[in-house]
Amino acid sequence: MPHPAWNLDWRRHMLAGALAALTLAPLPAAAQPVPTDFTEIVKQKMPAVVAITTQQRVEEQEQAQSLPDDLPFREFFRRYYGEPSGPRQQQPRQALGSGFVISPDGYIVTNNHVVEDAAEIHVVFGERNNVPAKLVGRDPATDIAVLKVDPPPNMANVTWGDSDAAEPGSWVIAIGSPFGLGGTVTVGVVSARSRDIRSGPYDDYIQTDASINRGNSGGPLFNARGEVIGVNTAIFSPSGVNIGIGFAVPARTAQAVADQLIRTGRVERGYVGLRLQELTPAIAQALGRADDKGVLVASVEPGSPAEKAGFRTGDVVTQFDRKPVASGRDLSRTVAGMKPGTQAPAIVLRDGKTEELTVVIGQRSDEQATEPAALAGADGGKRLGLALSPIPEAARGQLGLEPGTSGVLIQRVEPNSPAAEAGLRQGDVIVSANNQAVIAPTDVAKAWTDAQGQKRPVLLRVKREDQYLFVAVEA
Questions:
Q1: 29-85, pLDDT tens digit by residue?
Q2: What is the DSSP-derived secondary structure letter of residue 89?
Q3: What's the mean per-residue pLDDT of the chain?
Q4: Which residue from 148, 93, 87 is spatially nearest to 117, judged by alpha carbons?
Q5: Strand 205-208 to strand 91-101: parallel, antiparallel, or no bridges (unpaired)?
Q6: CB contact at 8 A, 352 and 123
Q7: Which of 407, 413, 406, 427 is nearest to 473 (CA)?
Q8: What is the set of active-site residues?
């Protein structure tokens, strides 16, 4: 039996060794020190975050017909409420959102959906300093807009951060004006990156569990260093309030779009004219491929840069601009981010052989026709009430579209509009208008304008889920 004193010394020796090991070894990620709070960051950045109010005009329609003679208590309704008298006057509606100052010149970033269709825009600094703002430009495809104000004294501004460095689990801070309450701070972590929520062709969202509610739209998402890594844009919620799933446009995208809007008032996007299809294991096997890397070319638009470069239907694109192609969405974002006129090398697999092609990036011309305002008559006539976009390549499979099918996707239907009354729905694909194929939103806009001039309905052929149907919309 060991001597008690030796046993005590041995235990002390072992304890000292264990403490030394803990001191020398790095702490596991779960044991990293947690910030006490974010007080200093909030003090510095809160003054650069603003509330945004917009004044919109909403036209309410009511039936322009007399009360029926056999209506019970007809005389009571006529005496106290009068006969219906046709369209009412346009009523103002106020919308609330958030934004943040990005430069001492007074440029402010927010969401497109916060300011779209706004007749007036005001920015609120702090609680009382309300100043008018001018719309510099907006980009519906990424939901980013830029405003300009005359800089008030001592105006603060933020700095952009590296959104690509934001890993799942890293701290984030959201500041905004939820429900019009003014400057509100919530804290959470990055939950995931590169989320596609089917809101547009360039979805690449940061997902966070920091509380984001109505009114937070357009506000900044900061990292733990106080840099903006995202623009809070959307939430996933069955009830309309935060359940811990929010989405932000990454700073990489938002900054590039904002810079273009400030310089030119619009966004230029690259275009090559390829319709893509994801390469499933079954398709890869049918093509004799050993793996399913790359994307399949479903069709090539006639006269497009891709056709001129030599792309063919059935090619498998494995590399573009010297970067591996992981998916159709990945390739679409790469092309969209390239400057028109740039030469881009591509590698495709064709008939079991590797081909190298060079395509000159063109400029996408249908981006400006994705908003309801583009679907009014040329003389400012009645609005059709649709927000349309080109069909995102990544969504073609979910929409059940055959390869090569042309059309435009309904992103939104305005309530009480002719489109809503005709039964059109979000997610429908319009493939023809008045028996003419629809390639871009402008085709629907022209058909609607023509229908108003001729005072007759416009006939739309629509793909809805697994069937086609015709819908007549009264002009």
A1: 444 455 678 899 999 999 999 999 988 655 444 333 444 554 444 444 444 444 444
A2: P
A3: 79
A4: 93
A5: unpaired
A6: no
A7: 413
A8: 113, 143, 217
